[in-house]
Amino acid sequence: MKEADIRPLDLFNKFIELSISDIESFFSDKTAFVEVSCPACDSNDSEEGLIKYGFRYLICTNCDSLYCSPRPNILQLESFYQTSKSVEFWASHFYHKTVKARRKLMFQPRAQLALKISEQNHDNSSNLVLVDVGSGYGMLLDEAQATGRFTRVIGIEPNKDFASMCIRRGFEIINKSAEDLQPNDVNAHVATCFEVLEHVYNPCKFLASIRNGLGIGGRLLLTTLTVTGFDIQILWENSKSLTPPHHLNIMSVDGIRRLMQRGGYRVLKIETPGKLDLDIVLNAYQQNEGIERSRFVNILMSKDNGQTNEDFQRFLQKHLLSSHVRVVAERVD
């Protein structure tokens, strides 16, 4: 897998351009922004991290997570995600241009992993239920249904347009935010949540709400970004993974562990299986000559050796140093 497979340069640059424009439209007045504690560990001890597009990020000195504070309030974020041009572009253009690659490289493996996780804990069940939080166009719902093992596949999607699209395709959709999920809305064996946690206002409340949708012994399969990752650490404010107002919470691996516990989960497995860290850094250097280059990355580039790069990426995966983190956790009762 290469970065261009899942986020082509021209499309992703247009998305960022629209995101910056949206900031002027939605967040030019920051008087309603809210100061928050660390979303991972809830500590108030922090130091300055970076400023990007006028948004301030702090580093938690307790768990090393990176987070936006002050940040837009909940109502501002809801309005942004319902009506902004960047979100509309991602849905209408970005998705359609990358759907085939994302389905094959991302969502088919994710559906198989969700099935494996649910079967590990409910191997005798013939009525497996999956709920996907932030289902968007329903790509994960498609692939989960295609396994033939889930009797119910449910999506939770707050965006009314996305929800309507999935409903028209025959999927069972709960059209509200995960934070509004009630214990009786769904009783799933496994919940999936891919690349959503970095966007939400209050990650702990968000995870605790997902827990309401899990049955006894239910498990959560979650992916997000981590500031511990190589490409984010190397590129820092130049990282395209740090794109406010979309990305508010870029937590450390340690911070994610603490957050899961606070949200009512026991972590069964945490790993960073990312494949793109070095590719992202090399692409950023090629696309922006103004970025100060890491001496170490220059050495890797000078090798011009595909095997070296592959070995280095495997090292990042093995030692929890990729920026793509995957968590399997179990509901604690």
Please explain how this structure is put together.
The protein has 333 residues and is an alpha/beta fold. Helix content is 44%, strand content 20%. The protein has helices at residues 3-6, 9-27, 74-83, 85-121, 139-146, 160-168, 203-212, 230-235, 253-262, 277-287, 295-303, 306-318; strands at residues 46-52, 55-60, 66-68, 128-133, 150-156, 172-174, 188-194, 214-225, 249-250, 265-271, 324-331. Strands 6-5-4-7-8-11-10 form a 7-stranded mixed sheet, sandwiched between helices. The chain has a 4-stranded antiparallel sheet with strand order 1-2-3-9, with no helix packed on it. α2 (9-27) crosses α4 (85-121) and α4 (85-121) runs parallel beside α5. The chain starts with a helix and ends with a strand.
CATH superfamily of the domain at 99-331: Vaccinia Virus protein VP39
Structural class based on helices, strands and sheet pairing: alpha/beta
CATH topology name of the domain at 99-331, in short, is Rossmann fold
CATH architecture of the domain at 99-331: 3-Layer(aba) Sandwich
Head-to-tail CA distance between termini:
39 Å
What sort of overall outline do the alpha carbons produce when their principal axes are compared? globular
Uncertain ranges: none
Total of helices:
12
Rg measurement, Å: 19 Å
The pLDDT mean sits at 92
Keywords:
333 residues, Rossmann fold, 7-stranded mixed sheet, 4-stranded antiparallel sheet
